Structure formats: C-alpha cells, structure tokens
Amino acid sequence: MINALFEELEEGGFTYDISHNSEGRISRLFIAHPLSIKLVKAFSDIFVMDCTYKTNKYNMPLLDIIGVSCFNTSFYSGFVFLEKEDEENYSWALRAFKEIIGQGNQPCVIMSDRELALMNGIKNIFPTMTNLLCVWHIEKNVLANCKKYFGRAEDFDIFMSSWNNVVYSTTEDLFEKNWDEFESMYIEKKDALEYIKKYGFLGKKRDLREVKEKICLAVEHEFNEIKVKLSSEKLQVPHYCNMPFFRELHSHISHFALKEIYRQYDVAKDGIITPCTGHFITTMGLPCAHKIKYWQGTTFSLDLIHPHWRIDTLSLNVQNDLHGEGINRFDELLNELRSTYQRWPLNKKEHALSVITKLVNQSVTVFEPMIQRPKGRPPKSKKKRGITSTTRDPSRFESVELSQSRNKMDDENSLIDLNVYSLDTFDLDGSF
User: What are residue 76's DSSP bridge partners?
Assistant: First the structure.
C-alpha cells in the first residue's frame, strides 16, 4: 500500500518527502500537490498553520498549511503527517515547506495558535518572518481556562461578552473599522476544519493513500475556483469604482482590494476625524483614508498597492509546469556535469561515478507508520469507541462549551413557572 502511494505521488507530479525510524516505518510524510505549489508561489505572503487530529488510522497529527490568496480566500498549501508534536518534527515539516516556496518567495506572516514547539520551529526556519497568534484560538483558550472561576453561568456569559467587546473593539481600531473583512484571516483554522470535513478527511479509518485522494479533490476544487475568479475579475470592473480616481487600478488588483480602498475613499470623502496611525497600510498593504485624501483630485497610483493584491501579474497556467522548478534545475546540473566530466582527472571521475551509482541503486524499504497514541481524552473515556476510532476528540474549549450548555439546560428544567399554579395547589408550608 505504501509503495502504491509513492507511485501515485510520483505519477501525479507531487512534491513529497519522508522520514522513517530505525525499523523502516514512516515517521513523517510531507505532501504538496503540484497545484498547491503553483498557488504557494503565486501567493507566498500569508500562511496559517495548525494540527488536525483523527484524519488517518495511524492517529498521526496532520499539520495543514493554508495560504491566503489576493481574493482573501484560503487554499491548501501542504500537508504533513507527523510522529508527534515537538520542535524537531515541526522543524522538519517547515524545512520541507520552505523548499517548495523557493528562495525568492519567503512568507511575510505565519499565523498559528500558541503551540510553543511550532512557534520555535517557525523562528528557526523562518527567522525574518512575523509569527502572529490566531484571535480565534485566543478566544477559545479564554473560554477553556476562565470558566472554572465563575460560579454562575450568567456571570461567565457577562464576562465573555465583555471580553469579546475588548477583542473586537481593539481589532477594529487596529484595522480601521474593517474587522468583518479580516475575520476570515484570523479564524482560518476554523474554516479549514470545515473544509476538511467537507472532503471527508475525518470520520473513517483512512490509510495515507486514501487521505492523499481526498487531498487531490480539495486542492483541485479550490484551484479551479481561484482560476475562475482570476479570469472573471480581470475583465469586470465594479460599478462603485468606475471613476477616474480608480482608473489605474482596474483589472490590476482584486475586487476585494478595490472594495477596501473604496471604503477608505468614502471615509476620506466624508471627512477624517482621527489622526493616521499607519495600522491599515502596515497590516493590509493598501492605502488608508489619509493617503487617499492626499491623492484626491488625481488618479491613484498602482505603485501604492502591495503586490499581494495584484491580479495582472498572475498566471495560473499549469501546462508543462506540474513538475516545478526542481526538474529544470536537475537538468541544468546534469548538463554541467556532462560538460566538465571529461576534463576531470581519473580519481575524480571514479569518485563521481561511485557516488552516482550508489544514488541510483540506493533503495530503502519503508513500512506503514506505527499507530500513535491519540491526543485527547484519557484512556478510560475511550472504552465505548476504542482507541482506533477516528472520531475527533473534543478540544478543551468544546468540552467547556458542552458543560456550559448542559448546565443551562439543567437550570432551565429546574425552574417552575409559579403562574401556572393556583394558591390551592400549595400547602401552608409552601410544599405541593
């Protein structure tokens, strides 16, 4: 089964890497679909990383790497099956991902939850990049850790409402009142889980080959969606931007970016009260209302837009491009070797032939991964489902939410509407 998987990966033009233990069992597996690599190279600025569980019968954590397109939509960039969640495994995965990005396309931002091993790996492999914490994960951690300090459910509800007001008001200030548009970037993991469920990653004891087939379905679907959107937006001009000020931007940047600029244009037109903080330009790579006000009466320059939002420079044509740049580089090296081989002394020729022969004849027999102990509930709670179940264990915040919901139901069921009883219903001591 494992050999069949590798044959399919090679035939499909996948980029993959494996690591195995002393027994020859796979301990790590990195998979990147050729269409994912195409999207990664086109949109290499923002990525979201987090682990998903119970996607395979080996209980191996699946690190899903998600990119963000110029349309503010997500796409799968790569999948990594790991032996466990530690810095060594994460660093191995990140090095493999760095290879497919290429030297000239290093990410600007990687978003994650507060997984310290992953954060340390990101710092080591991408030292110049910014690592941001996901707001959605922060909110769920607050829910999981603060519930125990409240005696009544009503008090905890008030606290969570106040906490959300603080988070959302701060975020709105940071992004110039545009939280709704950027919310997807900060809860991308939640959307990714829904996408994984949609394509059947969860819920069955799948082997790695079956998971690979599901990956193909998901990646091909989202690639086609992005490609159609790109063709459509190159031809259409939103009616609200059909004015001289936006002339240089038409068919050059995505409609999402145009819409954000138009919102800032409206603010500038109605009058700006607050001073410029620079947050919007820094976080979005788009002009704020203050910058637009300065350019009023002219045509806005395309040079002021971050390249992430450009659609005129994109090409998603996959013909003759499925095997990536690695094959081209390999051919170049072979040609260089062929031209210089004849000029080498005999000992150098013999050494080169020996190395090449070993590489060609080298074969490593690998076996299916060991079934890992799953992360989640203690063993006693698994009796009903068994340790091999691929039904996802609830996260800590989900257990708290379930407990909170049950407490509310118990409170509601215990209330008695006194209005339905007459005074005759009660004895003098107040009992029924």
Answer: 66
Q: Angle at CA 294, nearest 5°, toward 290 and 295?
A: 120
Q: What local confidence, expressed as pLDDT, does residue 15 receive? A: 92
* pLDDT value of residue 139: 77
Contact, 250 vs 312, CB < 8 A? no
Token pair for 240: 């609200």
Q: What does the angle CA 368 – CA 218 – CA 313 come to, to the nearest 5 degrees?
A: 120
Distance, C-alpha 257 to centroid of its chain = 20
Max intra-chain CA distance, the chain = 114
Query: Percent of the chain having pLDDT more than 90?
Result: 34
Please tell me the distance from the alpha carbon of residue 371 to that of residue 390, in angstroms, as a whole number: 12
Alpha carbon distance 53, 392 (integer Å) = 6
Task: List CB contacts of 309: < 8 A, sequence separation 6 or more.
Answer: 70, 253, 254, 256, 257, 285, 286
CB 349: neighbour CB atoms within 10 A? 13
Residue 344, CA distances (Å) to 59, 89, 355, 373 in order: 52, 41, 15, 54
Token readout for 409 is: 């139901």
* 3-state SS class at 432: coil
8 Å CB contact between 364 and 20:
yes
DSSP string for 168-217: HHHHHHHTTS-HHHHHHHHSHHHHHHHHHHHTT-SSS---HHHHHHHHHH
CA 224 from chain centre, in angstroms, equals 18
- For 122-154, write each residue's pLDDT tens digit: 999 999 988 888 777 777 788 888 888 888 888
Instruction: Please give the angle made by the CA atoms of 40, 43 and 44, to the nearest 5 degrees.
Output: 70
Q: What is the pTM of this model?
A: 0.74
Q: Within 10 Å of residue 67's Cβ, how many Cβ atoms? A: 22
Enumerate the domain spans of the chain: 2-148+179-232, 236-309
